[in-house]
Amino acid sequence: MYTRELPREGARSVAGLPSTVLALGVVSLLTDISAEMVTAFLPMYLVYGLGAGYLQLGVVDGLYTGATALLRLAGGHFADRTGRPKAVALVGYGLSAVTKLGFPAAGATLPLIGGLVALDRAGKGIRTGPRDAMITLASPPALLGRAFGVHRTLDTIGALLGPVVAFALIAAAAPGSVFVVSFAFAVAGVIVLAVWVRDPGERVERAKVDFRVLLRPEYRRVTVVATVLGFATVSDAFLLLAAQQRTGVDPKWLPLLPVGIAVTFLACALPVGRFADRVGRWRVFLGGHLVLLAVYALLLIGGNWLVLIAALGLHGLFYAATDGVLMACVGPLLPAGQTASGLAVVQTAQALARTCAAVLFGVLAGFGGLGMSFVYFGLALAGAIAVAWRWR
Q1: In terms of Cα–Cα distance, which of 31, 64, 8 is closest to 362?
Q2: How does pLDDT run across 49-82, given as a tens digit for each residue?
Q3: What pTM was computed for the model?
C-alpha cells in the first residue's frame, strides 16, 4: 500500500503541479512517438499493402484495443498490492519497447502482426493503471483535471510527432526503418521512467486489495456508463480510413492524418482539463461524446478537405474531453490504496467494449459499407449519451 504524495514547494513544475506529473508526461511523450509511428503506418500497410479487408482490419484493431484489457487489471492490482506502481509500469513500458523489434521479422504474415500488436498493447495495459495512479496520488485533489490535462498534453505531443516521423521515413523510401526508430524512442521513455520518476508515496505496508470498495454505487455507475459508451465508439483505424476514403484524399496521406487529431488534442487537453475542474468533469466527459457524434455525422456526409480537417479536429476535441477527464472523474471516488486497481477496472471495461465495437464495425462495414456502419454507430451513441445523462 502507499499513501498520497503531498506535493512539496520544491517539487512543483508546470501549472503548480508536482514534478512527477511532468516526468510521467515526458515518458508518455517518448512512448507515444514510438507507438504512433507504428499505429499510423499499420492501416496503410494492412489495407493498401497487404490487401486486408474491413473484417481483418477490425480484428487486428480489436486486438490493438482489447489486448490491454485484462492486463490493465493485473497491472493495477500488482501496483496496489506491492505499493510499487513505478516498477509495474516499467515492466509494461519495457514490454512494448521490445515488441517493436519483432515487426520487421513478421513481414506480411497477418497472424504474427496481430500477435505483436497484442503484445505491444499488453505492455500498455500493464502500465496504464499504475501510471494514472501515480498521477492521481501525486496531485492535489482539486487539480486532478489539470494534472491529467498536462500529462495528456505531453502525451499528445508524442502522438503528433509519431505520424510525422513515420511519414518522413516513408517519404524517404525507408519504411522498414519505422520500427527501428520506434524502438529507439520507446527505450528512451523507459530510461526517463527509471531515472526521473519516483513512486508517489512512502510504502507503509503490503495490504490486501479489497475489490468490494469498487462496488460503491457512484463508482459502479461511472464504470457502467463508460463501458456502454465504449460499445458505440468507432476505433481510430476505421475513423482515419473513413476520413481518407470519404473525402477523396490520396491514400499516401493516410499515415499523416493522426496529426490532425493530435493538434487539437494538444491545444485543448490542458484548458479542457481546467474547464472540467470548474464546471464538472462528468458533464465535460459526456459533452465529449456529443462531439464524437458530430464526427460520425461529418464522415457520413463526406466531402472534401474541409470536412476532413473538421472531422479530425473534432475527434481530437473528443479525446481532450474524455480521456484524462474520465480518470479525473474516477480518481476521487477511490481510496489511496485502491487507486490503481480502481482506475484499471474502468479502463479494462472500456477497452473490452471498444474491442467489441472494432470487430462489430468491421463486420458491418464488410457487408454494408462505411456509410451505413456510421449510421448504426451514430444511433447507438446518441442513445447511450441520452441514457447516461439521465442515469447519472
Answers
A1: 64
A2: 666 677 777 777 666 666 666 677 777 778 878 8
A3: 0.71
